[in-house]
Amino acid sequence: MHLLGIIIAVATAIFWVTRAARGAKDVVDVANTLRNMPRKMRFKNKAVKRGLDLIDNPMEAATVLMVCVAKLSDYAAAHDGLISGASSGRVIEILKSYMKISAVEADELLTQMRWSVKGLAQPDTALAPMTTVLSGLIRRAEADDLSDMLTKVSRADGTPNPEQRAFIARVRERLGLEA
């Protein structure tokens, strides 16, 4: 009889220890899930975004605007929206000098931003979202620098055309430089 009591006591102890271990494992799993929640939410928010919606960095937004100015050039109009080598080189040069990044980083950034605006029928489509990103993150002096950058890109293929000048004027207006 005592032996049966000991077996029942050991079985009961094993049962409760196993349940406690399973409960502790469940608590650890929940803690890991909660710890990873911010990362998962950031990924989920970015996963549903496409193209211009992914851009939230002033350097990226400025590069998109430079690509848009280049896409408005006469060269791009004659070549189905392709940006000339002179324009690409000018953007890379500007990124290196104004943004203080390496040539490799500038080339990668340009390639990425060209991909972001690839599907835009009109470069003006990027104007509102990019200036919205920039207006909250840059000061007036940086906005003036951006205007200079856009002007330099517009001159890469020769004299800027009216569409390029109008685009730059709209950027200046949206950034509060036309006062």
Structural classification: mainly alpha
Overall geometric form:
rod-shaped
DSSP summary, beta strand count: 0
Approximately how much helix is present in the residues? over 70%
Return the domain count. Answer: 2
- Low-confidence runs of at least 5 consecutive residues: none
C-alpha termini separation: 98 Å
Percent in strands: under 5%
Gyration radius, to the nearest Å? 28 Å
Total DSSP helices: 8
Mean of all residue-level pLDDT scores: 85
H/E element order: HHHHHHHH
**Largest sheet, if any?**
none
Architecture overview:
The mean pLDDT is 85. The protein contains 8 helices and no strands. α4 crosses α5. It folds into 2 domains: 48 residues; 124 residues, no CATH class. By secondary structure, the protein is mainly α. It is rod-shaped, with a radius of gyration of 28 Å.
Keywords:
mainly alpha, 8 helices, 179 residues, 2 domains, single chain
Quickly describe the structure.
With 179 residues, the protein is an all-alpha fold. The chain has helices at 2-47, 58-71, 74-78, 85-99, 103-116, 127-135, 140-154, 162-174. The model has no long low-confidence stretch (mean pLDDT 85).
Topology:
Elements: H1 2-47, H2 58-71, H3 74-78, H4 85-99, H5 103-116, H6 127-135, H7 140-154, H8 162-174
Helix pairs in contact: 2-4, 2-5, 2-6, 2-7, 4-5, 4-7, 6-8, 7-8
